[in-house]
């Protein structure tokens, strides 16, 4: 069909749609379906014409008019952490694995560097920190740094720093994932050399029982933030069937959901570091309990629960989006 004939046959109907003469929900839905059919036909036979652009704009306005008043469920806030975020974890489980693998390699690099170069720890952690810790070890309080200042001030300072660090790990993914890998490298090498330093002083087990009270959640969340950055960067590198811009939008949206979704984990980690870690005299069983429960939570919420949820939804609910929204 010639484009002029196509316009002549349908122009009156399109003008009626544009003027908003269709009012009832049933008519609105029927008209929207008809309009999208016209748009599909136009895209097929007149892809670069003004008619296609006109119909695309008209269909967009129709879509907005249908969904602009759609109400969110009252439990949307809960649903995000209960369903949406775990399903995103499952969807990007490979990126989570890659982030963990890279971070582990960087930690080993930091540990080995500290093992074979005595000056490496000072280079990474700074002379002031190493000197202060050496003094604390001499005083019999190797983890005295966690007892400085008030609990609340430490909590706030650590929470702000950690959230900033995780947002940077995510945002740096825009540089084709290289920026995120650099952030993971910095933190991984620092952690490896930091942990080796205490083992070299004969305080390895004690450091694990003290530092990993908050470190289990903090480091886990940092790795997850790295995965969010890889999602962002890989959306540009590997757009698959999407245009790069569309792929970037999807990757950025999912990565941001992860970055926002793990903020509570950083807040809990900061609470532990500000209020709990300083009590180095606590019973060993309590320290182990906090550490193990934190690790179980991460494994359950990020790995096991998303897989169970995905299998359940695929079995019982054909449309996952319907289950979410």
UniProtKB/TrEMBL annotation:
Keywords: Membrane, Transmembrane, Transmembrane helix
Keyword Glycoprotein recorded: no
TM helices/strands, residue ranges: 96-116, 163-182, 194-213, 219-238, 258-276, 282-304
Presence of the UniProt keyword Membrane in the record: yes
InterPro entries recorded: SpoIIM-like
PANTHER family: SLR1478 PROTEIN
Protein name, as recorded: Stage II sporulation protein M
Species classification: Bacteria, Pseudomonadati, Bacteroidota, Sphingobacteriia, Sphingobacteriales
